[in-house]
User: Fold this.
Amino acid sequence: MDAPRGPLEEPAGEWFVNRREELDLFWQWATGVPHPDRRSFALVGLRRTGKTAILHKLFNRLFYEQTRVLPIYISFARYLNRPTPLNSYEFAEEYFASYLRSYLAFRHRRPELLEFRAALPDLRVLIGELADEVAQSLMTSYDRALTDPLGTAYGLVQWLIDMPRGVATVYNIPTAVIIDEFQVLTNVYNPDQQLHNNLTDSFQQAAESRSAPLLISGSSISMLMGDALGGMLSGRFASWYLGPLAQEHALDLIFRLGQTRKILVTQALALAIWEVTQGYPYSIERIMVSLSPAVRQLPEVNALKEIILFELTDKLGALREHYEHEYGKYMRAFNGDHTARKILFWITTHPDARIAPDIVAAALGMDILQVQEALEKLYRADVIQRATISSFQGPTDPLLREFLRYEHYLDVENLTESAATTDLRKQLNAKIGESNRQTGHFTEIIVAGVLNNFDNRAAESQPYFSVPGTVNLPRMEKILRREGVVKEGIPHEIDVIGEYKLYNGLEGNASLGAWLVAVRYRGQKMGVSDVTDFSTDVTALQDEKQYGEVTRWYFSKAGFTEAAIQQLQEQGTYFSDLKQFNALAARFGLLPLTM
Assistant:
């Protein structure tokens, strides 16, 4: 995606990592419009997990890399947490102006309309200058609906919701409608009726449109999946849940932030940050850009504990502010006898337990109905998620768990701040200690990240793989680590495997090809016996998997002996030392190994 700077600002900028699966899915969804089986999509996830970044990157790609499908971007993010709810006429202006901005920017190649968020009066003038018949017709209809003395706010809203579908059908303009923070529409005030309405039910036909389907997002999971996508929209959206970053992509983000902030990131520090964040991108970002004085002590791993303590407990901690803003308002609204908070404390101290009313009630000696009511409150606050009809899943964000425990000690147990941080320090020590056991897998994770960025382009092979000619770097379908087989009682394991589709001339007829990679991060050069062992493992796995095509690649941090190099060349095996690997990583914009 080497497109020009997009008309929508990308929040993550150069810190955007991976999310390729989501981008590929939504790109195929959008560019396939119209399609008889096309469904509308809901991108669901907690705040600060990267939903808006994905939508902006998708829109920018649609803007520059294709011309057939009209991308529309509408956001209600600025109405989140507003003291007064969105009203019908504000909805109308936001929806209509956003549609026109996107339409005119795309059809007339005017990205500045989106960059500077051109207002409706400016768009009105521009439409006259461009003499765009579609836009002129829409503006006339909008003005008529807005000023009709017999018109209603309800009628105006219904017309606007169906407008993209109507335009797509009448003018044969396939359209992909992207709506950010859709759950805002569950509470819209109609001044005519002096009532609050859930507008999402009015999107039933829009959601079923084949010529202008919807891709919506929401940061309140319980509200989006319950109020917004329940009722008339039930079953009309395919949901995609956005979780934290996978380990290799979280490490990539850590190194990128380190480079930007001029912080040396070591293997030990990167793994420790991964362990305490489990890939939540906002947590990683706030640790690396924290105002804590301890940042100056990085890459010392012990400094990480002080940074996190600052972030979770200090009034200047951005993570504390984030959690207070997102969850504090619900915590304060919980019942005065602390029932919900006591239940929450049990949940955070039993992160792997099944959260069902009977289990929690028995563990805490509480009434089951009282527990059920408290669990529903926690679910509405997005602190816990529904796992089944009758059970829940606790917070998966480890730093949120620590924050909630810290708040419990302060508010329920009435401990001093000093005493409350004692347990927090203990938990952080345990988490960071876990990272020490992962050092052996670190290089494999980085190698897997490089394979995951292969993009079907050919490259000169000598600078990266020590062999002459060119090599195709296939787009991987799946990355596997530590995959093995047992043959004649002997285990054979490959460190990293990248599998890709190998087409055999007929559409839809594909077998699997694979890159099989040995990863060695030891200080000594690999010798002939090491190469022979790898060859034996490859043969065993190939016999088991029956790959249609196999590429062997041996990466050794310290390089190879002369005899090993000769053997690798005779076998046709690619091989790389640290310098060559880092050159390959740089080709894909990834940061180098610095071990």
Q: What stands out?
A: DSSP finds 24 helices and 16 strands in the chain.
